[in-house]
What we know:
19% strand; alpha+beta
Amino acid sequence: MLYSKEVMEHFSNPRNVGTMEDADGVGSVGNAKCGDIMRIYLKVEDNRIQDVKFETFGCGSAIASSSISTEMIMGKTLEEAMAVTNKDVVDALGGLPTHKIHCSVLAEEAIWAAIEDYYIRTNTPYDKEKFAK
Ligand code: FES
Ligand code: FES
């Protein structure tokens, strides 16, 4: 079996899909390798993620990665959310085929982009070097 049951489950029944009208931070990233796009919306209160939504125009692994990563960062502080790596996402999904690892990287990048957008919108000083990829 190419895909784990977690991947299939999140692909068939993705959590937190959609947009957010009043998002505090939005991050859109594209994958140069395959052209897929992922967008993450965050609602932030007192440095904590109160709500997350995602839209992913891409493959099943990208959809499963976005779905599980929204669950992983829900309720977390921004720092805790930034500590979630693509490896954590892959592990939580019970693994991804090697050529699909880049799909999970997209999730990590989209989360970081949404957090940076939040920092910019709220004039919060942050370590720009850390965000420069
Ligand atoms: Fe075809 Fe991503 S490359 S769905
Ligand atoms: Fe491109 Fe999955 S194949 S994100």
